[in-house]
Specification:
Elements (H helix, E strand, L loop, with lengths): L10 H4 L2 E2 L2 E2 L5 H4 L50 H26 L13 H10 L5 E3 L5 H6 L4 H9 L22 E2 L8 H14 L9 E6 L6 H12 L4 E7 L2 E2 L2 E2 L19 E6 L3 H18 L3 E6 L18 H10 L2 H11 L5 H22 L20 H17 L4 H7 L11
Parallel strand pairs: 3-4, 3-5, 5-6, 6-10, 9-10
Antiparallel strand pairs: 1-2, 7-8
Helix pairs in contact: 3-4, 3-11, 3-12, 4-9, 6-12, 7-8
Length: 442
């Protein structure tokens, strides 16, 4: 049983009370002060909450164009030229052209692995267009469009996938694990989400660099599946508590391989997590290239001006299989995928917008698709004829000075090649694919 306690008020407190009521002109929460470790106001009413919107509604998604390429009511269409719009569209069309050919090349056994960007063309190209070309990008594995936007050639794409001697990674990475120092694109790694805390560190380094402070951001791409890893929280925590211009771009495409997003989290997706770290956050329609470009551009501005992290959740749909090792029809309906391709195709949406402006027509569409296919096929045919990097590269680049154990392994291999390389047919044939034909110095 609760009893009202008898309290003796000091003369000072009594002056501010009348008939048991506070006479303070301040709100009750302000007059009660705050707790020692927070600025949160004190209240007398018990209330739980489970939403960052205040009224329990879902976080809204920002959009510029509807599914027919028409600006929605109240939307501010970015001011872009016809030339810039054509560049956006050509890069969006290049992605499925590459995907169609390289997916089939993998099925022919000519490369070991591949991952497509089907359905996510606007999410990738719109983001790329909003960044500065020298912003540092740490990608997951569907962001080759960022490299292409920055001038990475189709020949370079093929070189990486085939692992030939023109590959800057010297054939050491799996296909689609791109990296390019001149394009400020950090090498992709297979382990999920490792790039997220690394990006927070890159952002902090940029902030400490007088020449790049307030000029560049670190931009990290990841999927909603990667956001279930602890690395996501580590990266967000680091970038918010040690403030750095780190732009977190979450491609929420609905699936973490075979796990749908409905089974990955219960809350209002990833955007609800941003405010928990004190990070400015926005959710955007990822199939609207203009909306993505506007959201990422504004996020980048906030990163630079505030020197703090920003989270952009890009809502899209993964039309393709997770990779060439996956059959997505084992866990989702084929008709579901076909419907998404027809109803909400990001390429079609932007094409309709361009046509409404008189910037595009059917003849140009056919010419573009034909030219892109020819370019990709020419690069493919060239890449498969090129030799692998020097076998000697197997022992380089990891250490500034070659340690004794690596030297011993190199010398051992050189001895075996000298003894058997030209007399054992399997080795003799295999060594021909290397640029140096296996001629190691002992």
């Amino acid at each position: 049983m609760l009893r009202s306690s008898s309290v003796k008020y000091s003369p000072l407190l009594t002056r501010f009370r009348f008939r048991g009521r506070a006479l303070s002109t301040q709100p009750a929460s302000a007059s009660l002060g705050c707790l020692p470790t927070t600025d949160s106001p004190v209240v007398s009413k018990l209330a739980f909450f489970n939403s960052v919107t205040g009224d329990g509604s879902k976080i809204p998604s920002y959009r510029v164009l509807d599914g027919f390429g028409i600006p929605i009511e109240g939307a501010e269409v970015p001011e872009i030229s016809e030339q810039f719009a054509r560049r956006l569209y050509e890069n969006m069309q290049l992605l499925p052209t590459l995907d169609n050919i390289l997916y089939n090349v993998q099925r022919q056994g000519k490369i070991s692995f591949y991952m497509t960007s089907y359905g996510e063309e606007a999410a990738v190209i719109g983001s790329a267009a909003a960044l500065a070309d020298d912003d540092e990008v740490l990608a997951q594995y569907r962001e080759v469009g960022v490299l292409l936007w920055r001038g990475f050639t189709i020949d370079r794409v093929m070189a990486q996938c085939f692992g030939n001697h023109e590959d800057s990674g010297k054939g050491r990475q799996m296909p689609v694990h791109f990296g390019s120092k001149p394009h400020h694109f950090h090498p992709i790694s297979s382990p999920l989400a490792t790039q997220i805390p690394q990006a927070a560190g890159v952002g902090y380094a940029l902030k400490r660099d007088p020449e790049r402070r307030s000029k560049n951001v670190a931009c990290v791409f990841f999927g909603e599946g990667a956001a279930s890893e602890g690395d996501f929280h580590a990266g967000m925590l680091l970038a918010s508590t040690l403030p750095s211009p780190t732009l977190f771009l979450a491609r929420n495409n609905g699936f973490a391989i075979s796990t749908p997003s409905s089974q990955q989290f219960y809350g209002d997706s990833l955007s609800a997590r941003g405010p928990g770290y004190g990070v400015d956050t926005v959710r955007v329609d990822g199939n609207d290239v203009l909306a993505v470009m506007s959201a990422v551009k504004e996020g980048r501005r906030r990163c630079l001006e505030g020197g703090r992290a920003v989270l952009v959740e890009i809502m899209t749909y993964r039309v393709g299989h997770h990779s060439t090792s996956d059959d997505s029809f084992a866990y989702r309906g084929r008709q579901e995928v076909e419907n998404r391709k027809k109803i909400d195709n990001p390429i079609t949406r932007f094409r309709l917008f361009m046509e409404s402006r008189g910037w595009w027509n059917e003849t140009e569409e056919e010419e573009l698709k034909s030219r892109l296919k020819q370019d990709v096929l020419a690069a493919f045919k060239r890449a498969e004829t090129l030799k692998k990097p020097d076998l000697a590269e197997l022992f380089t680049d990891v250490y500034a000075e070659e340690p004794w154990n690596i030297r011993e392994q190199r010398e051992e291999l050189a001895g075996l090649l000298e003894k058997y390389g030209q007399v054992w047919e399997p080795w003799r044939n295999e060594l021909k694919i290397f640029k140096d034909e296996g001629k190691l110095s002992g």
